[in-house]
Amino acid sequence: MNPSTKIRKIDLPFGNGVIELKIPEKNLSELILPSEPKSREDESSIVKKALLDPIGSCRLSELVNPESRIAIIVSDITRPTPSAKLLPPLLEELRLGGVRDDNITIVFALGLHRKQTEEECRKLIGDKIFENFRCIQHDRERCRHLGETSFGTPVEIFEEVLDADLIVGTGTVEFHYYAGYGGGGKCILPGVSSERAVLSFHSFYSKLFEGDPLSGRVNSPARQNIEEAAKIAGLGFILNAVIDSKKRIVAAVSGDFIKAHRKGAEYVDTMYKVPVEPADAVIASCGGFPKDINLYQATKALENAVAAVKTGGSIVLAAECPEGLGNKVYECWSRECKSPDEAVERFRENFEFGGHKSAIVGKAAKEFRLYMVSKLSEEECRNTFFTPVGTVQEALEIILAENPEARIHVMPDGGRTLPVRKEP
């Protein structure tokens, strides 16, 4: 690199730390950043205001009585939901309605994810709440059948949730590759559903993943399926957060699980949809832990980055992945599918939960050159259709060796930011 070249230093989140990228300013096309609020309103105040002004519902304290049994669904360790900040105001609102603490059960929604350790549970909701309330983890083997959605997905919900008089869902509204957005009724399906229900829910993705992107669409088929299931299950109230790149709560919504969620989606769009002109390459961080806890989660940043790159260009994904690929089926497909074409074709013919991640990366690998900076082994990277590189700097040097004039976008929060191609 020419000593006289002006260099821009950019910190990229990586796990719980950061890695530094030094990029020539002449090659930096755009630093794709969200439009986050500049003011720093107290997070607790934001949550309390949301609970005081629910959308499409009366206040939570007016929905309960002293005998009400409450199930509060919270996110698991793979999600950035600030449950420890959401729960105290939520519990106070329930107490205002007369609900006793011993009638409240906090349920960790696992979907098909692994069980959590006690330490992880405590970290998510705080020691005080963990010690003073009944806290349990979703068990997909203990679900009751309630019917089916119009999509044919069985509605089978964790019995401890169904035994409550009122189901309260918490979560984070953010872009989701399949459901359009996280949050809302997603705490029910797939959150606390049976394995059969979750697999049925995901099976439709094989019919949709090669079409237009679903992320950022409030009317995606998956979202419709989710909301039908949540209605059948009786989801009575939600409290959802919108968080910034520092994982601070910048907005919150409460109330009806559809109407409040839509308002949350509006906040997300304003902050995180970024119009871009496709560049020659994109260097994207997932945004750090937990979005890069494993490759299963990290692929969401890859999908977001796709819209910002010209066909045939390069995508560099910076994802720590301390827990590896994060899914046994994904690991199996990665060993067995010898090419991107094989992964995509296999997924077209045979949906298998976890295999969809292999197909997603395979689809991207057919259109772009994929590089990975992670703690995965070289073999794991290559099996998942990435070229392993030691650092983002090394990846940049490879790109510039091929095209010294390459225009490169950088996405420090690729798991949350959604580039949208500018209209010609």
Description:
It is a single chain. By secondary structure, the protein is an alpha/beta fold. The chain folds into two domains: 7-31 and 277-421, LarA, C-terminal domain (2-enoyl-CoA Hydratase, Chain A, domain 1, Alpha-Beta Complex); 43-271, 3-Layer(aba) Sandwich (Rossmann fold). Helices cover 34% and strands 25% of the residues. It is built from 15 helices and 20 strands. It has helices spanning 43-52, 83-96, 118-125, 127-132, 159-162, 195-203, 205-208, 221-233, 259-272, 295-306, 328-336, 340-349, 355-367, 378-383, 392-402, and strands spanning 7-14, 17-24, 28-31, 70-74, 104-108, 134-137, 143-148, 154-158, 166-172, 175-176, 180-181, 235-243, 249-255, 273-276, 279-285, 309-318, 369-373, 387-388, 408-411, 418-421. It has a six-stranded parallel sheet, with helices on both faces. Strands 6-5-4-9-12-13 form a six-stranded mixed sheet, with helices on both faces. The protein has a two-stranded antiparallel sheet with strand order 1-2. Strand 4, helix 2 (83-96) and strand 5 (104-108) form a beta-alpha-beta unit. Helix 11 packs across helix 13 (355-367). It is globular. The protein starts with 6 loop residues before the first strand and ends with a strand. The mean pLDDT is 94.
